[in-house]
Amino acid sequence: MRAAEDPARRLRLLRALEKKLLWLSAWTIHNANHIRPNRDGLKVGGHQASSASVAAIMTALYFDILRPQDRVAVKPHAGPVFHAVNYLLGRQEREKLATLRQFGGIQPYPSRVKDGAEVDFSTGSVGLGVALTSFAALVQDYVHLHGLAREGMPQGRHVAIVGDAELDEGNIYEALLEGWKHDIRDVWWVIDYNRQSLDSVVPDRLFGRIEGLFRDMGWNVVTLKYGRKLEAAFAREDGEHLRRWIDDCPNSLYSALTFQGGAAWRAALLAELGRIDGIRAIIDPLTDEELGALMTNLGGHDIETLTEAFRAQEAAGDQPTCFIAYTVKGMGLPFAGHKDNHAGLMTREQMEVFRAEMGIRPGHEWDRFEGLDIPEDELADFLAGLPFAQKLTPEGRCLSASEVPVPATLSPPRLPPNRMLSTQAGFGEMLAEIGRGGRETQAMASRIVTTSPDVTVSTSLGPWVNRRGIFDRHLKNDVFRDAKLASAQRWGMSPKGQHVELGIAEQNLFLVLGALGLADRMHGARLLPVGTVYDPFVNRGLDALIYACYQDARFLLVSTPSGLTLAPEGGQHQSSNTPLLGIAQDRLASYEPAHTDELAILLRHAFHHMQQPDGSAVWLRLSTRSIVQPERVLDPAAVIAGGYWAVAPEPGARIAIAYQGPVAPEAMAAFEALREEEPGAGLLAVTSPDRLHAGWLASRRAARQGPGAASSAIERLLAPLAPGAAIVSVLDGHPAAHAWMGAVRGQRVVPLGVDRFGQSGDIPDLYREYGLDTDAILDACAQALLES
User: Fold this and answer.
1) By C-alpha distance, which of 189, 220, 240, 151 is closest to 72?
2) Which fold has domain 7-227+298-330+345-389?
3) Most CB atoms closer than 10 Å: which of 226, 367, 420, 513?
4) Is the peptide bond before 285 cis (omega within 30 degrees of 0)?
5) Is 196 labeled as ligand-binding?
6) Mean pLDDT score of the chain, rounded to an integer?
7) Do the strands 158-163 and 499-502 form a parallel or antiparallel pair, or are they unpaired?
8) Fold of 420-628
9) Is 164 marked as binding a ligand?
C-alpha cells in the first residue's frame, strides 16, 4: 500500500523526515562553526534553535501539503532547514550544505539571487518576506484576471513561515490592512509561536491581541496549541486541570521548565496539582523523559495536528489564513526553551550526544537517510512522489517570459517655442499618450501596471488611470461619473484595470513593486511596473525598496516632486539625500533629467532596461518646476550613460559648470555670464551621477586587472578640461552626489547643493538661501578661478 493510502505509514515517514531535517539543519550549522576552518576567528552563527522550532512545520508543508504552484517565504532563521528540505528533494547538492555562510556558498537567509531557483522569496529583512506573500498573491490575481498567465498553470497559495518576533514589525500590519482593502486570497501565514525573540521571551497574552487583528482584517485564524498526546491527556479524568494550568502558565516559566526537563515539570505540577487524583494518574506512570515529552507536545511539533489543520483549511477555500503554531525554540536540542538560545550553538560535546541520539555514524553526517529506521528506497520513492517534488514547469520554479517590445523612441510632449514644462508633467503626458495604445505602444501599454501610495493625482498619474482604470478583483463603478458629477478623475474599478491604488504606507508601495517586478519569474508573465511617490518619502519605504532590489525585482520608480524646489511645501516635503541613495543602491539605475527630451529617452530606456538579463530597476527623480524646453537633438547613449556636454569646453579649459535637474536655468544663466570671462568654459548636463559613478568604478576595476580597459563615460567627458581645471557643480540635492568627480582626473570640484533641512518659501528665496541661484554659482566659479 502506498503512503498516500496508508495514514499510519505516511505519518511514520513524515516523522522520520522531520528527524532528518532536525539533524541536517543542526549539523550544517555545527559544521560551519566547529568543523570548517575558521581563518578570521569570527563566530559564524546559524540559529540552531530557530531552525529546530520549525522542523515539524516545514516537514508538514513541504512533504505533505505544498503543490508545485505554491510559493513559500521561509522565515530567515530557518534557512538551514530550507536547504535541508531541498537536499532531501534532490534539489540541493550535498557538497553545498557544507558551504553555509561561506564565500560562494549557501546564504544565511534564503536569497533568490544567490541561492538559486528554489527560493521563491528572499528573506532576511525581518517581516518583509512575510508581507510580500500577500502582494504576490495580489499580483497572481492580476496576471490571471488579465489573461496573462501561462496556459494550464493553476493558481497557487502564497505561504509564509513566520517567526513570531517578526510580528513586531510595523510593515506587517500595513500589509494586512492593504490586503484587506484588496480582498487578497490564497495566502497562508504559519506563525512559529515559540514565544522567544532575540533578547527575551514574548510577553504573555500577546497573541490574543494579534489573533484579533487578523480576524478584523478578514483572515481565518487557526490556533494549533496542543499535540495529540496532550489532547489525549486533557481528555482523561481531571485532564481539564492540566489544560488550564498550561494555559495559565507564563511564557517565561514554560520556557524555563522546558529547559530544565521532566523532573522540573514534575515538581511544578505536583506543587500545584498534586492533590488531584486524575493528574497523578496522568503523570505518575511517566518517566521524567516521558513527562518532558508530554509537556512539550505542542501543536507546532505534532505532525498529525499540523497536517490535519492544513488539509482542513485547504478544503475550506481560498480565504487568507493565519495558523498560530505553538512551538518550543530549540525543540529536540540541549538548550530547548532557554531564553538565551537564539544565537546558541551546540558544543562539540553536546553534538556528540546529539549524534548518538540521532543514530548518525561518524563520517556519515551528510548521508541523505542516515540514522533513519526506514529503508532508503521507501523514503526515496515517497519523496519522489510528493506533489511538491514535481516540476512546476519544464524550466523549474523560476520561470521566464518573453520581452515586451518597446518602441525605438518615445517622443516628449509637443510644445510651442519657449513653452515651459516640468519633468513631472512631461512624465504624466507621456504615460497618458502611451495609454492611448497606439500601434507602436499598444503591446507595451498592455503590460504597464502603475501603483502609488495615495498620491496618484499629485504625481501626474491621473490621465493614465483615466485611460486604463483601477485594478480590483471586483467590478466597482465610479459613483461620481454615474451621478454625472464633474470630476477630472474617471476611475472605474475592474479586474481589467491597470493601476493598483494603495494607501499612504510607502513600505507597501515597494513591496507591491517588488511583487510586480518578479511576475515574469514567479508567474511567467512579463509586467512593466511603474510606481510613483513623493521623493522625500522614498526614505519611509527605503527598507522595502532595498529588499525589492535585493531580489532583483524589475520596476520603474518615479519619485516626484523632489528637492527644495517644491518650495512652499516646506522641509518635511523636501528632499536632499535621495541622489545619494540612487548612487549607493545596487540593482537600481538612478536618473534625474532636467528637460523632457532627456526624460523621453530615459523613460524608453527604463522600459527596455528592466527587461534585460543584465538590467535592473530604474529610478527617475522628477520635479514640479516648469522650465523652458530647448529645441535640440540629443545623443540617447550619452543621456543614458549619465551626462553630456550641453556646451563642450575648449581643449585645456580652466573651468566648467555641471548641473543636474531643475537648477538648469540657473546653471545656464551662470554659464552665459562665465563665458564672458572664460570663453572656453564648458557646460555639463548630468543626468545620472549614479551611472557615471558606476561606470567609473567598473572601469577602474577593469584597469586593475591589466592593460586595455576602456575608459568610462565620466573620464571621457572630463578629458578636455585642463588637469587642474575647476568643476563647479550644482543640484537640488546633497552636494556629495557630485563631489566624487574630482577623483576621476584630479580636477577640483566645487560642489553646490543642499545639505540642510529645507523650509517654506518661493524658488528665488530658497535658491538664494541654499546657494543654488545664479549668483551663488558665479561666486563659486570666481573663487575657483582665483584659487587656480
Assistant:
1) 189
2) Rossmann fold (3.40.50)
3) 513
4) no
5) yes
6) 93
7) unpaired
8) Rossmann fold (3.40.50)
9) yes
